[in-house]
Design goal:
The longest helix is centred in the C-terminal third of the chain and has 19 residues, at 59-77. The protein has one helix at residues 59-77; strands at residues 18-26, 31-41, 46-57. The N and C termini lie far apart (41 Å). The protein has a single domain, classed as Ribonuclease H-like superfamily/Ribonuclease H (Nucleotidyltransferase, domain 5). It is built from one helix and three strands. It is flat, with a radius of gyration of 14 Å. It is an alpha+beta fold.
Length: 78
Amino acid sequence: MSDRITEVRWKPPDWGWIKVNTDGSSIGSPNIAAIGVIFRDHNAEFISALAENIGYFNALFAEFFAVMFAIEKAREMH
């Protein structure tokens, strides 16, 4: 494991597109897990977001759940 800090920059999507960022995590494997999802437009303007506890899962499942939730939400939003 590295103690090095890496800078990460968020880049807005192309004009007319919406970008969704997702994250899932758990405290242990399996243990309490949660997801986070945020939608922003090409101007980086907030559209929608969600943070939710999802029960007892591992981190891989939480990441998968976050992406699947984002896909379903995007479909609802057209």
